Amino acid sequence: MSTPAVSHVSDTARWVAMYRAMESERPDALFHDRWARKLAGPEGEAMLRTIPRAKQTAWPMVVRTQVMDELILQVLRDDQVDTVLNLAAGLDVRPYRLPLRPSLRWIDADLPGILGYKEKQMAGERPHCPVEFVQIDLADEKARSALFERVGGSSTKTLVIAEGLTVYLQPEQVARLSADLAAQPAFRWWLIDLASPRLLKRLDRMWGKTLQRAPMLFGPAEGTKFFEPHGWRELEFRSTMDESVRLQRSMPLAGLFRWVGKLYPKRLQEEFRRMSGTVLLERT
């Protein structure tokens, strides 16, 4: 039996890095991540060759990257954030490629394997602000709480980022993570990506075997209302489909699907619009 292309959830970081590399190498690139291909390595390139429809499905990851970039800069510009806590940081290198204030503190937290690899690869590169690498298993609630208390106790306005994290957690795990974050008064905003049950079903049909060791689990039927009992509410929702049109990175036949969608009842139109998105949450 062949080994799945994704043998651990950390492998998805190489996969997504390849999407950033592909976008960065376009003449009309939305963003430029000159480290992405190096960080993805041969393993990331192999994923694009072997995972079904991998290249054709680059667009939502490209859209997610660009929209998160925009929202991060928006919050930093408008709200005088002093700290960014990047959970499940993977191979993201935003402190190196975004125009950040030198006074900002950026903390990357992730599993030792993937974060240690990134730290080694980025040695000698100069970020725009100080970066702290914290090797941690975020599933370890005791270690996680200790990290949150340390960061929360040494900051006044923190933006938390969790890109590509919650989808791999069970709902009860997301609920506990939400409550742990909300327990820190300094944690004012939380930026995530969010899927719906409909999208999870589609992805399971396409990549269920590929992701059997890193299954996608979290796609709440209630959408962002899931987070309200746990201390967070929606501040801004950016629909992946809508943003893909704005950024001109839509899926094939997107225009046709949008035209047909206008024939559906308003409730279904909204369900499709919110099938996938990037969400900025704020403390309640």
Written description of the protein model:
There is one protein chain. Helix 1 (11-24) packs across helix 3 and helix 3 packs across helix 9. The protein is globular and about 50 Å long. Strand 2, helix 5 and strand 3 form a beta-alpha-beta unit. The protein has one domain: Vaccinia Virus protein VP39 (Rossmann fold), CATH 3.40.50.150. The protein is of the alpha/beta class. The model has no long low-confidence stretch (mean pLDDT 93). It has helices spanning 11-24, 36-50, 58-79, 94-97, 112-121, 141-153, 171-182, 197-207, 240-246, 254-261, 266-273; strands spanning 83-87, 105-110, 131-135, 158-162, 187-195, 232-239, 276-283.
Offer a concise description of the structure:
With 284 residues, this protein is of the alpha/beta class.
Features:
globular; seven-stranded mixed sheet; alpha/beta; Rossmann fold; 7 strands; 284 residues
Radius of gyration from CA coordinates: 18 Å
> Which strand-content bin applies to the residues?
15-25%
Level-2 CATH architecture: 3-Layer(aba) Sandwich
Taking the sheet with the most strands, its summary is: 7 strands, mixed
Please tally the helical runs, counting DSSP H or I stretches of 4 or more residues: 11
Shape: globular
Q: Let me know the number of strands.
A: 7
- Distance between the terminal alpha carbons, to the nearest Å? 49 Å
Low-pLDDT windows of residues: none
Overall mean confidence score, pLDDT: 93
Estimate nothing, just give the exact number of structural domains: 1
- Helical coverage, percent range: 40-55%
CATH topology: Rossmann fold
Spatial strand sequence of the major β-sheet = 3-2-1-4-5-7-6
Fourth CATH level, the homologous superfamily: Vaccinia Virus protein VP39
Helix/strand order, N-terminal first: HHHEHEHEHEHEHEHHHE
Q: Give the class-level CATH name.
A: Alpha Beta
Derived structural class: alpha/beta
